[in-house]
Amino acid sequence: MSETATEQLIGKPLLQKVKELKEEMNNPTRRELARLCGYVSRTKKGEVRINVADFYEELLKAKGLNLDNENSQRRGREATFRVTVQKNGQILIGAAYTKSMGLKPGDDFDVKLGYKHIHLIQRDEDSIDE
Q1: Distance (Å, rounded) from C-alpha 41 to C-alpha 14?
Q2: Within 10 Å of residue 111's Cβ, how many Cβ atoms?
Q3: Residue 90: what are its φ and ψ, rounded to 5°?
Q4: Whole-angstrom Cα distance, residue 23 to residue 9?
Q5: Structural contact between residues 121 and 110, judged by C-beta atoms closer than 8 angstroms
Q6: Tens digits of residue pLDDT in 13-33
């Protein structure tokens, strides 16, 4: 059986290795392919972790598919559209949501309560002056 690569393969060497492994092994799993192409790390406890997501990302790049937006900044978590009431009773919406809506500090909202929902309705400039 093939040995694990000492460093993560990328580009054409990655594609070649995957092709060789698929011919050599009978129906290898994704985890086996990732491990044998070097997509392995160790946790703080010393356990082996196979980085399948990183393997697939590099595999897609090697095939000419880049799913990342070049303009995107990889900071923080993505917006999940799920929030939790905090211990003090407040609900924090987060900057990802306000940024995606183009909101600025000082924007006003009306709060409408429903049976099991809350509607935040942005007030336009005309209704604020009334």
Answers
A1: 17
A2: 8
A3: -90, 155
A4: 18
A5: yes
A6: 889 998 999 888 888 899 999
